[in-house]
Each structure stands twice: as structure tokens, then as C-alpha cells.
Design a protein that fits this description.
With 323 residues, this protein is α/β, with parallel strands linked by helices. The protein has eleven helices and eleven strands. The strands form two sheets. The chain has a seven-stranded mixed beta sheet with strand order 3-2-1-4-5-10-11, with helices on both faces. Strand 4, helix 4 and strand 5 form a beta-alpha-beta unit. Helix 7 packs across helix 8. The radius of gyration is 22 Å and the shape is elongated. The relative contact order is 0.17. The structure holds 6-O-phosphono-beta-D-fructofuranose. The site of 6-O-phosphono-beta-D-fructofuranose has 10 residues, from loops.
């Protein structure tokens, strides 16, 4: 057990639905354990610029269901420099904070490592819609994002069917194809392009569309992960090669917003409470993960060294079900 008395919580990088549920869990679990809790605003920038406020139980009332993050978020360049990292840790000490929960993606984990090296106990929670963190099967926001994207794709499918068109639909994911893959299966896509597997050979997409037409399918959905890019170009070339009217839609930032799903609210809450338990145990430089049905934790260095590949079973499923 540690002698931690005051903890801080911040959200960093791209926001993700469920971050508020995690913040609420950190604050309430902290208060219930007799700790003081402070909210650090705008991610690491709030540590550097000392935007830190006290939080009580009512600060997190009415937020479990809300998208975005009440603490705001940023991608903070200063936190990438040794001077910024030291200032952030010094300002945390100045505010009386001896443990911090960082909610964000793997870029944010690097800031957490630096805080830990600078003497502030730090626990990271995977918060990203991209699901691109190797140590965990769950990241805060992915479930909501894929459901949002799926609903958007369903709507595009209606108009695509009416006009007997082909639709190229670009989903987020940075350099990872998890959102595309899940949406591809859930939307019954004819073809899914993911950066982990795409070799740039558009003739395979064209052949697939033509073979689907030949068996009577009169509209087509191609899901393109943003890591493969160029949805407009792909649409133009498919139209030219097939003669089928083709439109590209980039779903974009709507995938990052909206009320979190039940799954995101519950798992994000469990992540938040676990982070507080770890701080109370005196742990630092750890990341909370969900693996094989359990909430566990890893050393951040170990977690960042892990590599994540696409789920081969799901990739195979897309191909088997779109014949
Ligand atoms: O990491 C989440 C994410 O939404 C990615 O899917 C996307 O590539 C990126 O963030 C967009 O970032 P920004 O909102 O800064 O443009």
C-alpha cells in the first residue's frame, strides 16, 4: 500500500466515447477510498499550463452517458520534450498530486512513462476508437465508434441500393484496420480494405464487384480504412473499370462522438476503478488492459513493445461471407 493522498486524471489525444465514464469512475473510486481527486484539463497541456481543478462527486454527475470528455483533450507537443515532461511533473507535485490516471492512446502512454520517470506514479487507460493497442482486447470508444459507423453505412446502403451504385465508405482507424474489419462484417460489405493486408491491387476489388453483379447483386459496399486512403480515387477508378456509378463517403469525426454504448460505459468504468486500485497499491508505469475475460495490468514499456495484428479470423470471415 502507498501513502498516496491526491490523484489527478486527464484525457489525452483523440477523444473517445466512454472517456467520461472512465473519468467518473476514477473520481468516484478515488473519493470512496478517501483520496482527493483533481481534474487536469486539456490533457498534458493542462499540467504544463496548470489548468487543474478539484473534483468532487458532483463534478462527475450526469456524465456517464455523454460522449467527448468533460476534461477536454489535446495532442501536446511540449510533452514530447524533456523540459515539458519535467515541468509537467513539477506542476503535478506543486498541485499536491502524487498519482495520475492518463486516459488516451499509445502516444499518451509515452507521456505517462515520462511522468513516471519524473517521480509521479502514473497509470494509463487505453482510450481510443482505433483498438490499436496491442496489450488489450478492449479500448475505450471502439464499441461506440463501430456502432456509429455501422449505422452510417446502413444508411448509405439504402441510397446505394436505390440507385444500384457502388459505395466506397471510408472509416477511421489511423494506421489500423480494426474499425473497417468489424464494420465490414456487420454491414455485409463486398470488400474491405485494411492497411495491414491491402496490397494496392484494385483489380481484386473490381473483379469482386463484377462477380457480385453477375450473380444479381445490384449495389455494392466497399469499406476502406483511412490508413489505405484515397477513397475518391478508388471510386473513380472502380466506376471507370466497371461502368457502375460509384460514390465515396468519408464518415469522419462523427465516429468519435455520440453517447457511449453500454459496453463502453461498463468497461470504461471498470478501467477507471482498476486504475485507482493500482495507484493505491503504489504501482506506477502500468497500463490497464482487458484480456481473456479479465481486467489486468502491464508495465507500459512491455505494453508498448507488443505488436498487434489484425484478427485473422475476422479477416477470413469477411472474405468467406462476401462470396
Ligand atoms: O485515434 C483516433 C483518430 O480518430 C484516428 O482514427 C484518426 O486517424 C485520428 O484520430 C484523427 O485525429 P484528429 O481528430 O486529430 O484529426
Amino acid at each position: 500500500m502507498s501513502d498516496i493522498k491526491t490523484i489527478g486524471v486527464l484525457t489525452s489525444g483523440g477523444d473517445a466515447p466512454g472517456m467520461n465514464a472512465a473519468i467518473r469512475a476514477v473520481v468516484r473510486a478515488g473519493l470512496n477510498n478517501g483520496l482527493k481527486v483533481k481534474g487536469i484539463h486539456k490533457g498534458y497541456l493542462g499540467l504544463i499550463e496548470e489548468e487543474i481543478t478539484d473534483m468532487d462527486t458532483m463534478s462527475v454527475s450526469d456524465i456517464v452517458h455523454r460522449g467527448g470528455t468533460i476534461l477536454n483533450s489535446s495532442r501536446c507537443k511540449e510533452m514530447m520534450t524533456p523540459e515539458g515532461q519535467k515541468l509537467a511533473a513539477d506542476n503535478a507535485r506543486k498541485a499536491g498530486i502524487d498519482g495520475i490516471v492518463v486516459i488516451g492512446g499509445d502516444g499518451s502512454f509515452k507521456g505517462a512513462q515520462r511522468l513516471s520517470e519524473n517521480g509521479i506514479n502514473t497509470i494509463a487507460l487505453p482510450g481510443t476508437i482505433d483498438l490499436d493497442i496491442a496489450c488489450t482486447e478492449y479500448t475505450i470508444g471502439f464499441d461506440t465508434a463501430v456502432n456509429t459507423a455501422m449505422e452510417a453505412i446502413d444508411k448509405i446502403r439504402d441510397t446505394s441500393a436505390s440507385h444500384e451504385r457502388c459505395s466506397i465508405i471510408e472509416v477511421m482507424g489511423r494506421t489500423a484496420g480494426h474499425i473497417a474489419l468489424w464494420c465490414g462484417i456487420a454491414s455485409g460489405a463486398d470488400y474491405v480494405l485494411i492497411p495491414e493486408r491491402y496490397d494496392g491491387d484494385e483489380s481484386k476489388i473490381i473483379d469482386k464487384i463484377l462477380s457480385r453483379r453477375a450473380v444479381g447483386k445490384m449495389h455494392h459496399i466497399v469499406i476502406n480504412a483511412e490508413g489505405c486512403g484515397d477513397s475518391d480515387g478508388i471510386a473513380k477508378r472502380i466506376e471507370a473499370a466497371t461502368g457502375i456509378e460509384t460514390r465515396a463517403t468519408v464518415i469522419g469525426h462523427m465516429q468519435r462522438g455520440g453517447n457511449p454504448t453500454c459496453h463502453d460505459r461498463v468497461y470504461a468504468s471498470a478501467f477507471g476503478a482498476k486504475a485507482v486500485d493500482l495507484l493505491i497499491e503504489g504501482k506506477t508505469n502500468r497500463v490497464v488492459a482487458y484480456k481473456d475475460g479479465e481486467f489486468i495490468d502491464y508495465d507500459i514499456d512491455e505494453a508498448l513493445a507488443m505488436k498487434k495484428d489484425i484478427d485473422e479470423l475476422l479477416y477470413d470471415l469477411v472474405r468467406r461471407l462476401s462470396r
